[in-house]
């Protein structure tokens, strides 16, 4: 068992990432009750950027020299910023159920992006279980345009603009996973990648917050929740980045859907809200998808050593 975990440690990291992401989502959800969504991003992501900057200095990482590396870094940072911004924009036009459902179409998109961009092998089972996981999200989110309306969901919020924002956000997530997998195969230092992405997210959210003039000084409790959200953001992205260094983008993305299961547990534990019966069906489907996509899934070839511009002690 220990030997298996060592050989497939990328799977372990991919499984840890959604746990920390779910805690981050819970904290961000609490913050957005009193603060603007873009300001919430602006006050908790800088901790991630600072940690990465300190690691870059400690490891004496030098910037890459190849312009192609910067193009992929730009794509990675832009997609991470885009997913954050499009999520906020989609939620202003759609219900949470609709938004989550459309966002997780990234599960299907990443399969094809991995094949087209990274030339990674995509099995028929990968596509099958990607759709199984997507079906699980539909059961858990219960979008009104499929299940109809009830006391908790409004059926009059499906707008073309909101759908376009959500689709753009899902594409951003898929491109983000593929871009970071590509950067790992190019040997670009992970610390530098994360620092670059964090800088772009903070810059984007800061500019939008200033343009919309929605900044207000947070209270002590809000700063505390922001600090905790920052810690979980650091943990989630470190595990996600390193998982993408050793596992395929398709596998990591499908395993990430377990975040919904953890979110349901936190919902019951902290918010005392019992999930709807369809959520249990979705949970089972997610477990089936995660087991199925890892079954007989050989790890991809090890990425090359990080470029001479980077310190090989990274991670």
UniProtKB/TrEMBL annotation:
- Quote a single Gene Ontology cellular component term: membrane
**Which membrane topology term applies here?**
Multi-pass membrane protein
Name where it mostly resides.
membrane
Q: Does the keyword Transmembrane helix apply?
A: yes
Top-rank taxon, per record:
Eukaryota
Where's it found, cell-wise? Membrane
Query: Has UniProt tagged this entry with the keyword Glycoprotein?
Result: no
Matches recorded under Pfam families: EamA (PF00892)
Transmembrane stretches, start-end = 12-32, 38-58, 70-90, 96-118, 125-146, 158-179, 191-211, 223-244, 251-270, 276-295
Q: What are the UniProt keywords, alphabetically?
A: Membrane, Transmembrane, Transmembrane helix
Ranges for domain EamA come to 10-141, 162-294
Which InterPro entries does its entry note? EamA_dom (IPR000620), EmrE-like (IPR037185)
Q: Per its record, how is this protein called by name? A: Solute carrier family 35 member G1
The protein's organism comes out as: Holothuria leucospilota (Black long sea cucumber)
